[in-house]
Protein: Protein HIRA
Organism: Adineta ricciae
Amino acid sequence: MKLIKPEWIEHGPKESLSSLHINPEGVRVAVAGKYNAVDCIRIFRLASILDENYHKQSRLLCRIDTQCPLCVRFSYTSDILAVASRQSVLLYHLTATNPNVVNQPVQSSSSFGEFPETWRLRSSLSSGHVADVLDIAWCPSNDRYLASCSIDNHICIYSWPSATLTTTLRGHTGLVKGLAWDPTGLLLASQSSDGTVKVWSSTTWQCEQTIKEPFDGCAESTSFLRLDWSPDGTMFTTAHAKNNTFPVSACIIRGSSTVDAEFVGHRREVTCARFLPRILLINGRRRCLLAIGSKDRTLSLWLTSPRQPMCIINDFFASGILDMSWHLNETEGLTTLGVCSPDGACAFIVFNKGELGSPLTHQEMAKFYSDMYKVNIAVPTKPVANGVTPVTNGNGHSHHSQASTVKTTLANQTERRLNDGRRCIKPLCIDTPPPAPAVTPAPLPAPTPVASTSKVPSPSPQPPPTSSTTTTTTSTPSSVSTSRRTPTIPIDPKPAKGVVRSSTSSITLPSSISSTALFPPLKLLSNLIRKINNEYELRTEKSSDQVYILSCINEQTKLAQWKNVFQSPLLAIQATKHFVALVTLNETNHCSELFVLERQSGLRLYSNIVLTQTLAGLYISENTNNLQRATISVIYTTGLLSVFDLTRNSMACPILDINISHLLPPHASIVDIFTLNYTNSDTVCLITSTGHLYGFDNFALPSDLTSSGPLSTLTKTHGATMNDDAYQKNLYSSPNRELLVSAYLETQIHRSRVLHSLREYSFWLTTLVRFLANSSLQDKSLKLKSILDHLAEHVHSTPINVNASLMPLRTKDEYQNVLNECLIILRNYDDTSTLVQHYE
């Protein structure tokens, strides 16, 4: 056994890694995370990692810059790389190789020069999820399906190669953090933060098993829960289970809802489990090899049937283990395990031939699946020695020959310039391979119950595949195909209507996007009645002149205290002791309008606000500390929650804009939305019909800061603030609302620094950190990292010269206190939790 930890592949001490995967041929290894504060995927040549004498110039094959890559997975049968990026699954295709490019350094950016390989984005699967995708998995052996799971509690199944959404699996009530297909492709296991593991059938897409027992009480302290099936398909191993108070990895038998065995020994939560995808023959017995990674920086290797620890590696990284990937090189008999950590490092364990036993061949594995599950599975194989064999482009032509064709064809390409200077180039067909003959795959025989004394139940029946024009090769248990099927990759279609935003904690929907309804819209009623503390009653009616009258009636005297008239029918009414909030439906302009009235007199306090989306709910809550202040909460059918802060004299723009659709399980509803006032800060609280309570901080300015401090005094006397009506109006109407708020907070920080106001500087800095963590700005990670680096630099630097420095913070302890406060804020957000680990 040899342990390799290449320093040149690390993403740096202040960077992070989220996923690692070795392609089935063992040519490439893809790592995803942050490198030089930029989200990217870097593809390395595996042979250059395992062989120290390999040419250093050809280590990096390609770099792909993309937003927040949380998971990368190569397909089994074609040169496709699936990437979980925000709410989408991006599919990259290897389009060309450049054998003449051999001197690209590993630090190169995607915009610098060329790479030995060219990977192009050909399809984006963005029609299923409304929140960040955490894990993806290809269906084994044939890539028939691609499954993805997200923090929106759902699992999306996409068909391949059509790249269309087949179905959405709903049933989890928490974040779904891991997926795994069984080796036959008949079952899909998923693990969620709701404390359950579910097993789904790929024939009916129904949940067949729900396991709860070993996961009850497990805290949501892991970013991923990556589980895996054994290569014989008889069991799967989960992440983050509990035995009393000890973290374990639970082994669950196929078809059973009970735990068969537990892998113990780790001191912290298990985050990832990976089986070697081949059955091993050890002393004549068939056994499976399992690798388990934990947050305690420990990697353990186990043999199953019976359970037996094989190897334990302590203090593997500076942080925990997030992802692992196996590769078996049949030519040389080497077995490689790749491991990555959020600290930015990765390592590879290489086992020599015979150290782990004798793995079954592809033909033997296919025969095993046929005998055990009565299904014919063609295990694809493409032998490549050390990555030297040239990779074809999927059409039978090598990329080198295609490159020569390009050079000869470009000489005949015509170009002309338009009057404005733009170039107009006539497109030419570079390569047209002969069409492959259509082969209709033979239908698989229907599986029958296995006549065996084994306690493993038979799998669900698999439907015969439909006819397709894609070139495929069927195989029998004794004859396995050695050719790769390259499907036709569809060009990304027009963006589907729906929620498409890049945020984890704040999924904001612009008004220009027509979104899919996730909550039922409010129905228009002829008469609305709303009582206020059993003292007054608000009632609507339609007059004969086609106007709508709102009356406030005293319950004791039964007389109307006041009346107000509207041109459109009233859709919803809510009231407190001092305010009345109502929404009218403007059928002419196809929009809704929000009005606020004074409860005592019925006077309109502000101009009406146009609501650009369909209304699903209206709520109002008064401030318990100040009865002259209230908050209005508006829920749209898309799941967007907007909260307005209002007083007798002013109404602020939405103090909260966040999508809450992923918080509610199917068939759940919102019971109430109110504002909780505590320590001069407001928290918007949401209660669901499932009994859950969610709180959202609106980052209100504490009252003690508004009356003290040099910056506060100057702002009140000479400057404009965010509370000015003109600023509020521009801020609310601007499509760059978050950028304006961020710029304002940054300006306040610099003003506090110039005035040497320690208290105000700390407040505005932590406010900016909290705002960025909750925003949907694309560069928020870069800004947060810059702020934390600045604080950490002063914590670990030499004492500061007080006379020369303009910073209000003087000592290392002051910087350390502000840094700790920022880290406490960022721990509450999933997409910044990995960033925190580098500064602890």
Observations:
- The radius of gyration is 30 Å.
- The chain has ten helices and 49 strands.
